[in-house]
Specification:
Length: 105
Amino acid sequence: MPKINTLSGRSVFQYTLDTSGGFYIEYSGRPHITKKMINEIETAFRGKTVPGGFSMTDPPPGGFGEWIQEHTPYTPRHGSHIAAVLKEMGIIKEAYGKSPIILRF
């Protein structure tokens, strides 16, 4: 089980790949990010640079966190963990900045 940091470096967590190309985030509730969801993320953000937007209360419009909130059963906070794994997988090409974190797909 790989152990990685969120892109802000504030949290360390583990994830497990599933057999179909998705992954599980290893914390409470064990969120499952399916291959279908990953494909939808790639389609929505391919070639774009967007804010991470991981705020639970006010994710910026057009940001990754807002997209997660609107298109999945998860919250922008989950988005911070999802983004870290997607960076490990090479789907997010670059992540930089601190507040906000900027993602380049």
